[in-house]
Amino acid sequence: MGSGAGRGKFKGKPTGRRNFSTPEEIATGSSNKPRGFKRDKEEEEQEEFEEEVEQESDDESVKKKGIQGVIEIENPNLVKAKNVKAKNVDLDRPGELSRREREELEKQRAHERYLKLQEQGKTEQAKKDLERLALIRQQRLDAAKKRDEEKAVCLMMQQRKQRKQSHGNNLS
To answer: With contact defined as beta carbons under 8 Å apart, do 31 and 21 qualify?
Structure first.
């Protein structure tokens, strides 16, 4: 059917089969292979310069598709995207902010307000925390008094024991 060996399901690359240079072609320098990877510095510099020129020309003249290149129309409904991060936003221009930016700023301000009130002890959470703290302090004071009283009672008991023992020793 086909010429050459049957290669089955997997065929080679569309570029064709490999062509190897013979030693004579290598010696004469007339091989069909492209030049190696080593280039002259001048060629590299020339290519870099050409790429820079192409980039500059691309920036200056943007090609438009179809009729857009012929007729220039400003679409009033076209919204140009302005990507502004919340940390880079000026607080002086509230009229120019987007909905998300306004919501982010309001959220930050509300959080700051809440923290100030919390420090002053005016929020519900702060009041509860202060009450809990006062209760814990009172419990600790009561526990300390109780320990002191127990120590005092223990000392008195030990002193009585010592007196009894010393009184008993004196009698004998």
So the answer is: yes
- Given a contact cutoff of 8 angstroms between Cβ atoms, the answer to whether 126 and 118 are in contact is yes
Which helix (H) or strand (E) is 73 found in, with range? none
Separation of CA 83 from chain center: 18
Helix (H, G, I), strand (E, B) or coil at 157: helix
DSSP for residue 7:
-
CA distances from 82 to 85, 89, 132 (A): 10, 12, 49
For residues 104-131, average pLDDT: 90
And the tokens for 149? 């009283």
DSSP code, position 15 = T
Largest CA distance in the chain: 135
How far is Cα 166 from Cα 144, in angstroms, rounded to an integer?
Answer: 33
Residue partners of 121: CB distance under 8 A and separation at least 6: 127, 130
Give, as one character, the DSSP assignment of residue 60. Answer: H
Q: What is the pLDDT of residues 2-12, one digit of tens each?
A: 555 566 676 66
- Say which residue the tokens 């991060």 belong to: 85
Instruction: Say which residue the tokens 């310069």 belong to.
Output: 49
Report the alpha-carbon distance of residue 2 to residue 16 in Å, rounded.
Answer: 15
Q: Supply the pTM of this predicted model.
A: 0.33
